Amino acid sequence: MMDKIDLNKIYLNKLPADDSKEIYFESISLTGLDEMHKYSTNDKFYEFFEFNVFKSKTETEQYLKKLINRTKLIDGDIQAMYWFVRLKDGDQLLGTAALVNINKTRESAEIGYGIDPSFWGKGYVLLLQSALMKYTFEYSESSSVISLQCPRMY
Predict the structure, then answer these.
(1) Longest Cα–Cα distance in the chain
(2) Beta-bridge mates of residue 146
(3) How do beta strands 73-74 and 93-103 pair?
(4) Quick check: 34 pLDDT over 90?
């Protein structure tokens, strides 16, 4: 029988890793607010989302705080994990990545991401997805990962 894995400790101490060495993950925090706000004002960014373009930095900050707060223990289990994803060459913010709807009963998690449209079509989404799948299977009890595909982002 597998020992219970403390996902909260893993989230705080381990980050997803990209084997290609082109991108890296960092803990999501308010330090990335200015960069996130820049792409959050782009209409194209919302093409696959169900909410409207952020008009002010305050709206972006409120949303970023929501993402930070979603990474909390609920009844002893973590339900979501969020990260910023950056280019290794130049440290530019590509966007956010997440494991959401982490469900120990179903042994599943969903991959989510919001990528700056200026990086769509350059292969970064595939790198991000690969790193998150590897991370999920390596550090959690999940046996399945769900990811919706948006081909124009690849």
Answers:
(1) 51
(2) 110
(3) unpaired
(4) yes
The whole-number average pLDDT for the span 132-153 is: 60
Per the CB < 8 A criterion, the answer to whether 110 and 100 are in contact is yes
pTM (global) more than 0.90: no
Structural element, H or E, at residue 145: strand 144-146
Is the model's pLDDT at 9 over the cut of 60? no
Give the tokens for residue 101.
Answer: 């709807």
Contact 94, 134 (CB under 8 A): no
DSSP state of 68: H
Residue environment code for 2-38, b if the CB has 16+ CB neighbours within 10 A, otherwise e: eeeeebeebbeeebbebeeeebbbeebeeebbebbbe
Residue 6 identity (one-letter amino acid): D
Contacts of 31 (CB under 8 A, 6+ apart): none
Considering only 46-55, 84-93, 127-136, 139-148, which range has the smallest mean pLDDT? 139-148
Cα gap 10→135, rounded to integer Å: 10
